[in-house]
UniProtKB/TrEMBL annotation:
Family as reported in the entry's similarity comment: Belongs to the aspartate/ornithine carbamoyltransferase superfamily. OTCase family.
Protein name: Ornithine carbamoyltransferase
Catalytic activity: carbamoyl phosphate + L-ornithine = L-citrulline + phosphate + H(+)
Biological source species: Halorubrum ruber
Keywords annotated in UniProt: Cytoplasm, Transferase
GO molecular function, one term: ornithine carbamoyltransferase activity
Residue ranges annotated for the Aspartate/ornithine carbamoyltransferase carbamoyl-P binding domain, each copy included: 7-142
Subcellular localization(s) per the UniProt record: Cytoplasm
Binding site for L-ornithine: N158, D218, S222, M223
GO biological process terms held by the UniProt record: citrulline biosynthetic process; L-arginine biosynthetic process via ornithine
Gene3D superfamilies from the UniProt entry: Aspartate/ornithine carbamoyltransferase (3.40.50.1370)
One cellular component (GO) term of this entry: cytoplasm
């Protein structure tokens, strides 16, 4: 089923039915199903920030699909030396079949999509990480249940914001606990409500995890926030996902990775049977391969 959207900038660029079909396709591709549509296709990958999972999963994924991915780091292309983003977009669109971009400002990925004459995929901005959400939903489907309740405990930025909307689209119940000054953008809850999920965010992690099947967290110091490290560490005191917070629950633990052990999560929790993090990381590739064939491929 080709997608109606031209670009994938956040999770609700697809419909709930398209999301469900993408997850079905991801599971089938994980089980070995192949798709010939991207043989010889090229994906340009722009990175303003570092990456392990996003870079390797997209590059390996394109190879598995019979195509090719091109890493374009900040020092590799003229974008890092003053060429405007819209010019970069127009030129890349003349060469490649799709662009995946990891940028700081969400508005920049929108500019990229406006000017590039090819599909654009958001590989993380400060506001959203929809490819992570695809993998997360596949992981929950495989290991817990689509009737799961997930407690988001931690920062209210990119990974959490896309996850709440995606969970709403998939019918997953979500509780959200963030420090008062690091909550999600209220528009996230409005978007979740459009899919029937009523979220009442709290500043109390213990209240959020009560009855949760999964506790999901992310780093406290996101890429680009190193200069506010001390004030964020103080604000997130009490939000660590550790054995005390999980005591009395059978909850699994999710984390998009990279993890900062001893800050948002403890080593013993990440190394325990509760952790779904390695499945999440693997599922990035399967979920993205489904997205790539449906967004870039032609019927
Ligand atoms: N989860 C995630 O996007 O990881 P990377 O920063 O390693 O790509
Ligand atoms: N919130 C983190 C996610 C990394 C995948 C960051 O933006 O650095």
């Amino acid at each position: 089923m080709p997608l109606a959207t031209d670009d994938f900038l956040d999770i609700d660029d697809v419909t709930p039915a398209e999301l469900d079909a993408l997850l079905d396709r991801a599971a089938a591709m994980k089980a070995g199903e192949t798709d010939p549509r991207l043989a010889d296709a090229t994906l340009g990958m722009i990175f303003e920030k570092p990456s392990t999972r996003t870079r390797v999963s997209f590059e390996t994924g394109m190879t598995r699909l019979g195509g090719h991915a091109m890493f374009l780091g900040p020092d590799d292309i003229q974008l890092g030396h003053g060429e405007p983003l819209k010019d970069t977009a127009r030129v890349l669109g003349r060469y490649v079949d799709g662009v995946m971009a990891r940028l700081f400002d969400h508005e920049d990925v929108e500019v990229l999509a406006e000017y590039a004459d090819c599909p654009v995929i958001n590989g993380l901005t400060d506001e959203a990480h929809p490819c992570q959400t695809l993998a997360d939903l596949l992981t929950i489907r495989e290991t817990v249940s689509e009737d799961a309740t997930v407690a988001w405990v931690g920062d209210g930025n990119n990974v959490g914001q896309s996850f709440v909307v995606g969970a709403a689209m998939a019918g997953i119940d979500v509780e959200v606990a963030t420090p008062a000054d690091y909550g999600m953008n209220p528009s996230v809850f409005d978007r979740a409500a459009e899919f029937g999920l009523d979220v009442e965010p709290t500043t109390d992690p213990e209240a959020a995890v009560e009855g949760a099947d999964v506790v999901y967290t992310d780093v406290w110091i996101s890429m680009g926030q190193e200069d506010v490290r001390d004030e964020k560490l103080a604000a997130f005191d009490g939000f660590q996902v550790n054995s005390d917070l999980l005591a009395g629950t059978d909850a699994k633990v999710m984390h998009c990775l990279p993890a900062h052990r001893g800050e948002e999560v403890t080593d013993d929790v990440l190394e325990s049977d509760r952790a779904l993090v390695w499945d999440q990381a693997e599922n990035r590739m399967h979920a993205q391969n489904a997205l790539l064939v449906e967004l870039l491929g032609e019927e």
